[in-house]
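does this look right to u?? iron/sulfur cluster version
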Amino acid sequence: MLDRYGRTITYLRVSVTERCNLRCRYCMPAEGVANCPEELSREELLRAMEAAAGLGIRKLRITGGEPLVRRDIVELCAEAAALDGIQELCITTNGTLLPELARPLKEAGVRRVNISLDTLDNKKYAAISRCGSLEMAWKGLEAALDAGFEKIKLNAVLIGGFNDDEIPALAELTKQYPVDLRFIELMPMVDSGEFGPEAFIPCSTVLQKLPEAQPVEQDGGVAKLYRLPGAQGNLGLISPVSAHFCAQCNRLRLTADGKLKPCLHSAAEYSLRGLDAEGMRAQFEAAILGKPRWHGVLSATEHSKAGRSMNRIGG
Ligand code: SAM
Ligand code: SF4
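got this back:
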């Protein structure tokens, strides 16, 4: 379906839980995360995805919180992949639960996996995630490689004074493994407040540190693509702050508590809770027509207007 600015909306990011087994400092608070009794049931999520498919959504990305902490994640993915009209089912995960789940998810129909990996240093991983282990995330990556997904992308949030010294080492992963590595600019959300403006570094820093990276054919996604000589995968630069990509935005978001968000950085929400298929379809139409032209000023000092921490949106 077309929005008011001529953008065709084909992509729905579905957050299936706000819960997470990590507590990344840029994403969520250390404590006080509710158990989310308001989480949509599997039936409600499927009804929503079906309504979306009926309006032209072709790609679904399952996210969270950490989507793999949901007990019914494999069944949910199998049922979502089988929906009429859905051409691509992807998942974004911190990877730590992939050792057990990579193969079942692949068999359920998940085609592509994004794994968050901000650092290759054990101590830094434990510090940024507050409670995670790099070893578990790395085992998850290995399990994903073994399971044979169509595509694996690693996501690293760029944080000045934390991982900018690791840009070359993280980029090297595209030479060592058949993976893409995307650097994402730190977005100033609620609860990423412990990082001040000095922590923000633009994606252009990556190119300064990697002068050998060459632009390659773009794939229509939000990342600007480059490649290191001899690499197996691409480098992607995602710059929501320094160069917004609103004109190409083709997505909607569904939060785990049942709210459609037309824009990541706007407080506008359309509730799907308690609605039948027809009611959900009407809310999807309203959300698509309510999509703003752009997300407004977002900078190292100007906070997102989303009003939610990232684990409560889905990234
Ligand atoms: N738990 C999963 C994971 O970590 O991949 C999925 C949910 S997480 C909210 C989705 C993505 O959002 C991750 O790649 C994470 O790094 C990114 N993210 C979270 N907070 C962010 C922020 N303040 N700025 C930029 N990216 C952020
Ligand atoms: Fe959890 Fe992902 Fe947020 Fe980290 S970025 S706290 S893994 S939801």
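Helices lie at 42-54, 73-81, 98-108, 122-129, 134-147, 167-176, 204-209, 277-289. idk if thats expected tbh
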